[in-house]
C-alpha cells in the first residue's frame, strides 16, 4: 500500500452506518484508503499510529456519550487532522461545541443526503491541502487578474477568459473578492443567496465557483475554506 495514498478514517460504532459512509466516500474518490474503527480504544490506537488526511466520526461510541470529544482532542494534539463530525445530536447545539473543539464541520444524521456528505468530504480534503498555501506571502496578483462587472450583469473574467457562473455564484464570488484577504462568514454569504440559506447550499456554490475557475486553470486554489467559519479569497499569486 502506498504511503502517499490519501487516507480517511471513519470512527462509527454502527457498522451499517460506517459501511454507508465508506461507500459514499469511495464512490466519489475510488483511490482513497478508508479505515473503519468501531470503538474509542481502536480509534485512539489508529490515530497514534497513522496520519490521516480526514477523520469522519461520531461523538457517541458504544456507551460513551462523549467519546468523540476525547478523540478530537487527541487528534488535535497529534496532527491537527481535519475532523468531520457526523452525529445524531442536534446541530443547533453541537455545532458550536464542535467549533470550540476545532472540529472542521458537523453534519446531523438523518438531515443530510449523500450529495451533501460527499461535497463536504471533498471540500475538506481540498481545504486540508490548501492550508499551507494560505501562509505564504501575500501579493495582489490574483486581484489584478479577476474582473467582475460591478453591476453584476456582465461576464466574470479570469486572466481574460470568461468564467461561466450562475448569478448566485457570481454574487458569492463578488462578496469574497470585495473582502479579499479576509474571512467572509457563512452568515454574510447568506445575504447574497436568495434561496437555500444554509451552509450546505453555500458550499455547493463555492464548489461550482472553484470548478468554473479550474475549467480555465486546473491548478486554481484561490478560494480558501476556513473551517466552521466561511471562505476567503486568497490574494496570492497563482503559478
What is this structure, in a nutshell?
The chain is of the alpha/beta class.
What is the H level of CATH, i.e. the homologous superfamily of the largest domain? Answer: Response regulator
Give the name of the CATH architecture of the largest domain. 3-Layer(aba) Sandwich
Element string (H = helix, E = strand): EHEHEHEHEHHEEEHEHHEE
The averaged pLDDT comes out at 82
N/C terminus separation: 32 Å
Structural category: alpha/beta
What does this structure look like?
Residues 7-124 form the Response regulatory domain. One of its GO terms (molecular function) is phosphorelay response regulator activity. The modification 4-aspartylphosphate is found at residue 58. The strands form three sheets. The protein has a five-stranded parallel sheet with strand order 2-1-3-4-5, with helices on both faces. The protein has helices spanning 15-28, 40-49, 67-78, 91-100, 114-130, 141-145, 167-178, 186-190, 199-216, and strands spanning 7-11, 33-37, 54-57, 83-87, 105-108, 146-147, 156-158, 161-163, 184-185, 223-226, 230-233. The longest helix is centred in the C-terminal third of the chain and has 18 residues, at 199-216. Strand 3, helix 3 (67-78) and strand 4 (83-87) form a beta-alpha-beta unit. Helix 1 packs across helix 5 (114-130), helix 5 (114-130) crosses helix 9 (199-216) and helix 7 (167-178) packs across helix 9 (199-216). Residues 132-143 have low confidence and may be disordered. By secondary structure, it is α/β, with parallel strands linked by helices. It contains nine helices and eleven strands. Helices cover 43% and strands 17% of the residues. The protein has two domains: 7-132, 3-Layer(aba) Sandwich (Rossmann fold), CATH 3.40.50.2300; 136-233, Arc Repressor Mutant, subunit A.
Amino acid at each position: 500500500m502506498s504511503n502517499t495514498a490519501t487516507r480517511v478514517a471513519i470512527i462509527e460504532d454502527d457498522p451499517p452506518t460506517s459501511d454507508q459512509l465508506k461507500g459514499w466516500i469511495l464512490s466519489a474518490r475510488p483511490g482513497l484508503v478508508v479505515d473503519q474503527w468501531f470503538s474509542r480504544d481502536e480509534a485512539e490506537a489508529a490515530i497514534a499510529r497513522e496520519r490521516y488526511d480526514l477523520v469522519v466520526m461520531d461523538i457517541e461510541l458504544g456507551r460513551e456519550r462523549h467519546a468523540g470529544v476525547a478523540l478530537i482532542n487527541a487528534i488535535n494534539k497529534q496532527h491537527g487532522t481535519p475532523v468531520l463530525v457526523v452525529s445524531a445530536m442536534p446541530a443547533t447545539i453541537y455545532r458550536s461545541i464542535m467549533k470550540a473543539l476545532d472540529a472542521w464541520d458537523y453534519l446531523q444524521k438523518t438531515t443530510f443526503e449523500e450529495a451533501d456528505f460527499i461535497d463536504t468530504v471533498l471540500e475538506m480534503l481540498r481545504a486540508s491541502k490548501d492550508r499551507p498555501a494560505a501562509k505564504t506571502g501575500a501579493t495582489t496578483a490574483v486581484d489584478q487578474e479577476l474582473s467582475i462587472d460591478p453591476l453584476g450583469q456582465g461576464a466574470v473574467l479570469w486572466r481574460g477568459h470568461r468564467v461561466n457562473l450562475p448569478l448566485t455564484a457570481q454574487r458569492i464570488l463578488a462578496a469574497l473578492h470585495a473582502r479579499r484577504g479576509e474571512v467572509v462568514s457563512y452568515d454574510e454569504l447568506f445575504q447574497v443567496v436568495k434561496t437555500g440559506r444554509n451552509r450546505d447550499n453555500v458550499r455547493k456554490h463555492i464548489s461550482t465557483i472553484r470548478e468554473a475557475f479550474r475549467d480555465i486553470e486546473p491548478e486554481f486554489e484561490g478560494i480558501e475554506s476556513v473551517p466552521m467559519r466561511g471562505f476567503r479569497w486568497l490574494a496570492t499569486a497563482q503559478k
